[in-house]
Amino acid sequence: MISIEDPVRKAVIPAAGLGTRFLPASKAIPKEMLPVVDKPAIQYVVEEANRSGIDDVLMVTGRNKAALEDHFDRHWELEQALEKKGDKLRMARVQKSANLGNVHFIRQGEPLGLGHAVLCAEAHVGYEPFAVLLGDDLIDETEHLLLDMIAARHEFGGSVVALMEVPEDQIHLYGCAEVEELDGDVVRVKSLVEKPAVGEAPSNLAIIGRYVLDPSVFEILKHTEPGRGGEIQLTDALVELAGSQEKGGGVTGVIFRGLRYDTGDRLDYLKAVVRLAVRHRDIGPEFRAWLQAWAGSDEALGRSGKTAHLGH
Fold it and tell me: How many distinct helices (H) and strands (E) make up the chain?
């Protein structure tokens, strides 16, 4: 029988999206493999799971995502070439992605939404609590959001969502939580609304892409009807769990106030690259100095007299 003390040993990373906001870059390359400084975005997510003590990761993918499997596999030819050169630094970087734990893959088959992607993981997860990490949200390596969420699960049971305060004029872009305080930044979630209309949001607390779910969510997802966008919404299943008195019911929220990098669209992706680049241990100081000097230049201010035409 499952207990709230059971460890969270597995993580699910939905990665079946088409990445249409990044076309044409994502036409042949999965958006999850787009580089953020010197690593693909998806590696940051797997590293976060690994730092949280989770070494069993299931990626739910779709067609044309073979690059994800290749990235987390060994590349013997490349490693042999680097070994011959005596390039230990690059060797370690190449091997790291293959040493982050056991990374498994399953196809979603049909693009039926986040709830359906999570349901695809049922056979792998079994009847134990598990984490869900969305690849568009990168959490800084200095933060411990997932560990805080696991601790909340151990204390209060049920499922846990990550919440972040956002400006009121942006809450319509997110799922939104109605909450009551439990203990500081840990709250009880009374209800959830997916992308509420402006002026109708119950709070300014947005759901960001981290969840620790009780396995009872699977049975709920099986009878969850398609919602917004004609997709099976994980939010709808969480609403049912939030109001449930059954074993495994209840939803807790952890309000996150740390460093998060949004790679969900082109502008936010570029901001994430810059923010992580200035913090990078190798190139950060030099890049920061260049950026500060360049920001005040004629080129940056559009006064260079030259206009670049590289497409839109």
Answer: 11, 13
Tens of pLDDT, residue by residue over 150-184, are 999 999 999 999 999 999 888 988 889 999 887 78
What does the alpha-carbon distance between residue 41 and residue 46 come to, in Å, rounded to a whole number? 9
β-bridge pairing 10-15 and 159-165: unpaired
Do the beta carbons of residue 210 and residue 132 sit within 8 Å?
A: yes
Domain boundaries, given as residue ranges, for the chain: 10-295
CA distance 8 to 28: 34
Instruction: Output the pLDDT for position 183.
Output: 79
Residue with the two structure tokens 């869900």: 132
pLDDT of residue 221: 95
Query: E strands within 26-128?
Result: 35-36, 39-40, 56-61, 102-107
Do residues 163 and 256 lie in contact, with contact meaning Cβ atoms separated by under 8 Å? yes
State the DSSP code for 200: -
Alpha-carbon distance 104 to 166, whole Å?
Answer: 34
pLDDT score, position 243: 87
- Tens digits of residue pLDDT in 52-72: 999 999 999 988 899 999 999
String of DSSP letters for 196-234: PPTT--S-SEEEEEEEEE-TTHHHHHHTPPP-GGGS--H
Does the pLDDT at position 305 exceed 60? no
Strand partners, 121: none
Interacting residues of 134 by C-beta distance below 8 A, sequence separation 6+ = 13, 14, 45, 114, 209, 210
CATH, range 10-295? 3.90.550.10
The whole-model pTM stands at 0.91
What percentage of the chain reaches a pLDDT higher than 70? 96
